[in-house]
Design brief:
Blueprint: H1 5-27, E1 32-37, E2 44-53, E3 56-64, E4 89-97, E5 100-108, E6 113-122, E7 127-134, E8 137-145
Antiparallel strand pairs: 1-2, 1-8, 2-3, 3-4, 4-5, 5-6, 6-7, 7-8
Length: 147
């Protein structure tokens, strides 16, 4: 079987188009791995992996980064008390609403609290603005996409 130069060119072009489309789709969703940044120190703390099931986002800690002070959840209560942070679910129930994911919950192992949350992609999908809110108080972190 002989392959023509045109066939090779079309095959390469379609492959490049598929890769470009796949990359663009990845940046339009929070699904993937994110480096969390400590809002007090500005240092990276962990890697959180966000997954989607039935239009709902969930995130769990998959890695603690060098210099992480805590390895277990010492501030947690109940079943989570002193459990390893790696594998712990910290983000759940976020649903897409316009260009944000809202009505979710975020768990902060540093204080053992669970807060209302929302998230929004920024910087072309390379940054995820994650907000936790309790009553009138809110705190935002800028997570960085891990490529």
């Amino acid at each position: 079987m002989k392959i023509s130069p045109l066939g090779v060119a079309l095959g390469l072009a379609s492959g490049l188009f598929w890769l470009a489309t796949a990359s663009a789709a990845d940046l339009s969703s929070p699904v993937g791995k994110w480096k969390t940044i400590d809002d007090k120190t500005g240092k990276a703390k962990s890697i959180v992996e966000i997954t989607e099931s039935n239009g709902v986002l969930t995130g769990k800690i998959v890695k603690l980064l060098e210099g992480a002070a805590e390895q277990t959840c010492s501030k947690c209560e109940g079943d989570l008390k002193d459990k390893p942070l790696v594998g712990m679910r910290i983000l759940w129930d976020l649903k897409k609403e316009g260009n944000e994911w809202t009505d979710g919950k975020i768990f902060n192992p540093a204080d053992g609290g669970t807060y209302s949350s929302k998230a929004k992609l920024a910087d072309g999908g390379k940054v995820l603005d994650v907000t936790g809110k309790w009553m009138f108080f809110s705190k935002e972190q800028k997570w960085q996409r891990v490529e």
